[in-house]
Amino acid sequence: QIRFSHGDRTWAPSFLIQAIASPVSPSPPSLHRGINKTEMLLSRAQELSPFTLYLSSNPIPPSPNKALNFPMRTALTILRSLAPSHCHRRLLRTLSLLNPSPPLALSFSGRRLSPFPRLSNPAASSAPSSTLVEQLAYEAEGARADENWDFSHNSEAESFDFDASLAPTELKHLNSSPLEVKELEELPEQWRRSKLAWLCKELPAHKPKTLIRVLNAQRKWITKEDATYVAVHCMRIRENETGFRVYKWMMQQHWFRFDFSLATKLADYMGKERKFLKCREIFDDIINQGQVPSESTFHILTVAYLSSPIQGCLEEACSIYNRMIQLGGYKPRLSLHNSLFRALVSKPGGSSKYYLKQAEFIFHNLATSGLEMHKDIYGGLIWLHSYQDTIDKERIASLRAEMQLMEIEESKEVLVSVLRTCSKEGDVEEAERTWLKLLRSDGGLPSQAFVYRMEVYAKVGEPMKSLEIFRGMQEHLGSTNVVSYHKIIEVLSKAQEMELAESLMTEFIDSGLKPLMPSFIDLMDMYFNLGLHDKLESTFIQCLEKCRPNRTIFNIYLDSLVRSGNLDKAEDIFNQMHGNGAIGVNTRSCNAILSGYLSCGEYVKAEKIYDLMCQKKYDIESPLMEKLDYVLSLSRKVVKKPLSLKLTIEQREILVGLLLGGLQIESDEERRNHAICFEFNENFGTHSILKRHVHDQYHEWLTSFSKPGDRSDDIPCQFTTISHSYFGFYADQFWPKGRPVIPKLIHRWLSPRVLAYWYMYGGHRTSSGDILLKLKGSQEGVERIVKTLKAKSLNCKVERKGRVFWIGFLGSNSTWFWKLIEPYILDDLIDLLKAGGQSLDGTSETQDISFDRGSDSDEKASDYSDDDGS
């Protein structure tokens, strides 16, 4: 197809002009006449009205910013004048082989010419003489997609602000081993040529299961060379998914011999389409064969991981980058160094600080490779050091000295990073010197600079100076933000300046800024330390009215009630925490109430708390343990043995619901011990609440690395249980061969609690109020679940999207489903998940699901993309 649209510039491909002006070999007179005519037409390009010529076989219009701009009349004249000439096709082919990846390769779809040998097209070979338009379209079909270096920049205020030129698009060709495949006409048997042409035509049009059946039917005659031809043909016509399936089918045949060139080419194509799971699968195949992947595969796989927003992809990108240097011995391109470094520091500072060693490794590689060091590499490294818990002042000083030696001016971000280090060290002198530099710099002062300066003076015991800086910030910037209010209230609360802290809290509430919770916690801590329990209680009640409650404020209030001797109210608060799945209890809560019971002589209740702490494996404080030993010796003749781990009925039902929603189980090689891998999406509001409840439910089963500290309220998005044989039943039923299946006895386990946790973990509510449940498994398993739901008077529809099934409760059916599961939904999730409301957690995953066509449709849909691999 040829599409014309207005462009903003007028130029011709320099590659074509250079090639035509300097022919690589003698050519017939007719060719020289065509060349002279072309030169004349191209020389008039600037005089004609600009248009953009798009040449693509894809029905989707190419991106405007990737098109080559041509004058329309010039382009049409070139095509018309050169159309009958076959020698031009040979010239174009020769030039593309000599210079496969110039800065402006001749590709009207914005793609570069593919370097691997072309295979003959059966349809084209039977056609009459090909025109230049057909030739260009044929070449463009095999063009590889440009690497997209436009990684999304985090808009957090505390993320490092990079120069846009740090990660430029690098179009240099990455060398890979050539792939040699016989031309179709070189095959001696006519029947083999016909069958291969038929396979090349039919396979891309079939669904995956049908494709495998078609290939299985060819086993009697097909050879490795034949299958390789089909796979390469699919890559050329951009049916890379089909080529991947053909490759995986080849690996299962008795005649298969590993082909490094084919694996490399396919891995590169899958990586360029951002199918990082499939690219990684082929990458691992190469490693398992005892070979080292090519530089292009390392490069492209790293870029594919960096382009994905899925959790864990950045860590995988770092791993591939490190193996590229340490295993492959390659020297990555400058753009790859810069892009990975930029991704490391594009997250908020609190999460980026863990990537310091990786950032230092990239810096070392840049320095030892003699590559150009961008100024923001220095700034980003200083920024990472400033967020560390222990500041390396010598390293920061050496980096600043190198910047001064290279005559790199310290940017505003670097100066703010230096202020951050001063705030942690209490270095007033350096902070003031940095502040003066900020005042002399162009542009306004960043709000973070005021906050860190407040913290510096708070560190040296001058809270009133911090208040003065806060008021100066209000005058200078005309307003204050949430972070500054949090900091000044924290400073005054720690200094126990009660009246000032209360007045600023009132000012903060009246401003309408949120969140208020951190400041409420600071005030309650101040009241607790001052022994003002009445004020603490009133602040607690005010906090419940204005904020969603969390475990931290409940623990402070519980400690206050125990210390003031109000044990009855403390018991009510503890029971309220224990009964609310979104809040829950932890080691601190149990120790607080246990201390109250032991102090008041409530030994029976103390024993119950002790049993709960033993079950959840909470640590008992040493002073309490001494009293508890005496109490237990009075009531128990035999010392109680440690409780053996065993799932309760509630834990079993929750686990079944989460497994249906997509929870994974990891097993050892002998399948004797199994671990449950809990993973929650930090971008889902439902998951951020559910993860705390699930963490508390399985606390006694979790590894020590999955448990936060007693004073920490931060639950990780990923945590795992210990590897235990007790989970063998669930592994055999739901993950028998490392892949999710639907058990045959699932109809016995679909209780309302199971359905509720399935919905909270793997379900969605649409904008129209319908309820969708996500499920992986076989068609037969889905039918068993649907039959069981209908037996409960729950009518539903099923839509298939690749390997994922979506069970939909539409209209009034969603209301009946909600009434069934509502008693088991967490209180804080009722408004988010209630049927008939507006969706708050809509995802692109569910936007194109429609139940109007019936079930089991669209088997080739995007579930085969790598996004589902999360």
TrEMBL record:
Spell out the protein name for this chain: Protein ORGANELLE TRANSCRIPT PROCESSING 51
Tell me where in or outside the cell this protein is found.
Plastid, Chloroplast
Q: Where do the PPR repeat units fall? A: 481-515, 550-584, 586-620
Q: Where is the composition biased (Basic and acidic residues)?
A: 850-863
One Pfam short name: PPR
Q: Which residues form the Homing endonuclease LAGLIDADG domain?
A: 652-817
Q: Which family does it belong to?
A: Belongs to the PPR family. P subfamily.
One GO biological-process annotation of the entry reads: Group II intron splicing
User: For this UniProt entry, what is the primary localization, expressed as one broad class?
Assistant: plastid
For this protein's source organism, the top of the classification is: Eukaryota, Viridiplantae, Streptophyta, Embryophyta, Tracheophyta
Highest taxon, organism lineage: Eukaryota
Q: Which intervals of the chain are annotated as region Disordered?
A: 840-870
Cite the InterPro entries for this sequence: Chloro/Mito_RNA_Process, Homing_endonucl, LAGLIDADG_dom, PPR_rpt, TPR-like_helical_dom_sf
Q: Which GO terms describe its molecular function?
A: endonuclease activity
Question: Quick check: keyword Magnesium in the entry?
Answer: no
Bias class Polar residues marks the residues at 840-849
Keywords for the protein's UniProt record, in alphabetical order: Chloroplast, mRNA processing, mRNA splicing, Plastid, Repeat, Transit peptide
Q: Name one GO cellular component term.
A: chloroplast
